[in-house]
Fold this sequence. Notes:
This protein is an alpha+beta fold.
Amino acid sequence: MNTLPEAVTVQWLRTLGIQRKLGSRARVDITFYRVPGYSRPVTIPAETKVYANGGQVYTLLEQVRMTEETATVTAQSERWGTVYNVSANEIARVERNFLGLDFVTNLQPAVGGEDLETIDSMKLRAFELFGRRNLTSRSDFQSEVQTIAPEAALVRVLPYSERFGENSRGVFVVAGGPDGSPLQPATQSLLLTSIRDRVPLDVKVYLDTPVILPVEVVVNILWNPQATTTFTDTIAAEINQLLADTIDPVILGLGTPLSFTSISRRILALDYVIDIATLDIKERIVDPEVVGGTDRACGRFVGEELDDETCLLSYREVVDKTSQGELVPVSETAAYRLYRSVIALTSVIDSSTLTYTYDELYDIF
């Protein structure tokens, strides 16, 4: 293999199911500072370019409208590569001048930039693939999945008897993308073949896709507007992102309960939060008989269709401040993911409430 030309090596390894790992772009939060004493709003359009000291180029993903002294927005590197993972305070220039803009910087390092995998790295993975021993433990099977299908972010291996309650020699492998998406058919076939070649003949091998359980969160937060200068829509977006990061299949893992306490503690840790008046965490039920797009009031979910063309949703489980329990997945091959959040911000100064809704946060397969 070491004597083959690079193009031939890549093609040959691809036939073995070893795909070249593509690079990825870096992301970074850019903070803009308004000129001291300048009282008018400053607007920086989306797709404006900013530059690091080393010449790396990043593009703003959304518009910035500064009505306060500072504003922060996410930018993405122009190309992929680890060279774009610059340190904090490395980004200091905008592609053109904006009236009222003083300066820009990145208070945190850029992250996520990855280089295109080298041919030598692909060869090394191939040698590891060819030289592996027989599979005996769960960790062996999990390593096999991650070697054959590095895109499998959700992996769980169960004895057949544990999964189905039958006394039979077999292994049940669950593997899928970070959103629960199934592996490509070619990858599934290669994975099954590889595992079956390395277990005794009487051991059955089954491969399945993770089950993603949609979660809805309704929260009413008592907050102190004097503790922050951030706009309420930005605060709501921050809380929604906190919920999405907590209720994430990759973070939680398959078969892991979702704790009321873990979510409430993260919310209460925010500087401007005084208390939580309401926190309802609900698991929606996906209707297996409804596939693809639908005009139903309940969409893909189980619920009662009312006369006014609205939906009264059904929930498998609900935890709240009274129970303070946890949602438990239906099986060890399922994981939770945030589908909808309703975030109410109630001021402790004047009791006014603003409500923000984030819906259909991902596509139901």
